[in-house]
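Appendix B, record 7
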Amino acid sequence: MIDTHAHVHDRSFDEDREAMIARARERGVGGIVTVGCDVEDSGRACEVAERYGLAATVGIHPHEAKDAPADLPAAFDALRERFAARVVAVGETGLDYHYDHSPRDVQRSVFAAQLAYARMRDLPLVFHQREAHEDFVAALRAGYDPRAQRGVVHCFTETRVEARIFVHEFGLMLGIGGVITFKNAQPLRDAVREIGLDALVLETDCPYLAPIPHRGQRNEVAYVADTARAVAEVLGTDVATVVARTDANARRLFGPAANAAYGSDVSQVR
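Structure tokens (predicted):
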């Protein structure tokens, strides 16, 4: 089972990171992608990935766009040179108009730069989008080539309409996390049911958005198993099928570079 979007390098795990990862392994998690949100955070993600045998990403979250380096390619290249195959994607990157921690024009500029970087370096992308759907889609149409690039809309929580655009127009994966277990998430469950397993990957976004029955607690990688069970229930299938299919999607998304950090034993999922 692969958690395609976590923040295991987050400071909230400093006291028990090794034990937290061990708990995840015990529940059948064989692969973890820890996701960077600015240059410093991406460096920390890479360091933790190297220490614990994980995969990592390098990216500038839209919240942090205002502080992006002037030479973004050089900053990302330096991390990739240092950590080599541990870096499997660019992200998380995108647009967030809910908080507007960075000006919207700056968000769009930094997003475009990361789209271009991923295209130049042949790397998949991890996308973040909140309350910016129209501008996000416009940016993809301007700077993303679905024939040659791969990507995932992480923490997808929207409706069947948005799901169809992301999957059918852009060939993107949808990252499904703990929100699918929430009582008010019926539109998301409807979207998952319509799209089916071929375009889904599992994630936690830990330490955020813990699924039921852990809601209100610090989220952790082991809880991806609860999300897998919820997806299985929505689709009327078994957990082993969900894990096998979403793992295959994750491997296709991140490519051969991530294989060293992946593994899966469906029989251990519990």
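Remarks on this record: The first strand starts at residue 2 and ends at 6. Confidence is low (pLDDT under 50) at residues 263-267.
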